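INTERNAL AUDIT FORM
Audit reference: QA-55
Scope: verify that the stored structure record matches its stored sequence.
Auditor: D.O.
Record contents follow.
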Amino acid sequence: MTETKNTMSPLFTKENYKWMIIGAIIIALGFFLMSGGKSSDPNVFDYKEVYGTTRITIAPILIVIGLAIEIFAIFKKK
């Protein structure tokens, strides 16, 4: 009987993992910017601090870009 070896190549390469890490860092940065800082007075509601451009616009854009990079990293071939 003839023996055949089934060798499977890894699903992701080193470059795929590099892109995945870059995407994860960008997503984490987006969530960090969305969380913001602490308020100087917790009893006062600061509209500009909660609904600032960084939290409402920049952070979600970074998260979507990070997710797009993750999708790119998963589908990237050699």
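Auditor finding: record pair retrieved intact. The radius of gyration is 21 Å.
Action required: none
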